[in-house]
Amino acid sequence: MTLAVIQMASQADILANLANARRLLERAAEADAQLAVLPENFAAMGRTDLRAVGRAEAEGIGPILPWLKRTAIDLRLWIVAGTLPLPADGQPQSKVRACSLLVDDQGQRVARYDKLHLFDAQVSDARGRYQESNDYAAGDRLVVVDTPVGRLGMSVCYDLRFAELYTALRLAGAELISVPSAFTEVTGQAHWEMLLRARAIETQCYMLAAAQGGEHPGGRLTHGHSSIVDYWGRVMREQTTGEAALVVGRDTVGQAETRQRMPVLDHRRFTTPRIVSGTLE
Questions:
Q1: Right CATH number for 2-280 from 3.60.110.10, 3.20.20.70, 3.30.460.10, 3.40.50.720?
Q2: Predicted TM-score (pTM) above 0.85
Q3: Which one from 26, 59, 69, 115 is the annotated catalytic residue?
Q4: pLDDT tens track for 198-254
Q5: Least enclosed by CB within 10 Å: which of 172, 203, 218, 244?
Q6: CA distance 239 to 7
Q7: Catalytic residue check, 69
Q8: First to last CA, the chain
Q9: Which ranges does the record mark as transmembrane (predicted)?
């Protein structure tokens, strides 16, 4: 069971981003990865026309979804497509969501997760205000799905600060969790690694953290440090900045033994929000 995360420094040119992502996914496939995770905004970083991009994809005239299907088939690879702007299913005119799609090696959509927590924050005094809710609507569903490398829980970037979501993913059976991200340089330096390791330790899951790492339109800097963190909180692979395809094997025996020796779910004294038909209450 071989896992991969991809690090990019995406720009506003969608076609160029897709070409770069394809090249990095090819590296992962050549290393026998069965599932690979792309970073947040892998195809449309810094775009100001996100609604138009999302509407085109929803109407079947955009380049991203056909590329995703073709790449998964060509490389025989399951792909977590970081995030792309997409309106809610069946609502092409609605506000876009930061949508993370999972497609299988036949190019079929297996799952969709829309980012639950939107990054509306002031992270520094100089050009440090982010307001994702201006561009995106929040999701409302928890997603855990079976894959050839284990049961995958899905999350995105700012979600990482909300431990209750990750506990809920573990309770729903997650063995590994995807975290496509574009952490700022300020917040990344302060919190990225410790949050990843904490979520891994709490859930006893692999964290597949595919990040943006570099400079983007408008001078935005992202922290990079894409990582694969195991169920014991060990950083198995990491890339500081620039492009990379990181690949590791999943130790299913060690993970199962750790969960048996330290059954944290059985020791819980407090509950997380109830989940009814996949919707958080």
A1: 3.60.110.10
A2: yes
A3: 115
A4: 999 999 999 999 999 998 888 888 999 999 999 999 999 999 999 999 999 999 999
A5: 218
A6: 8
A7: no
A8: 34
A9: none
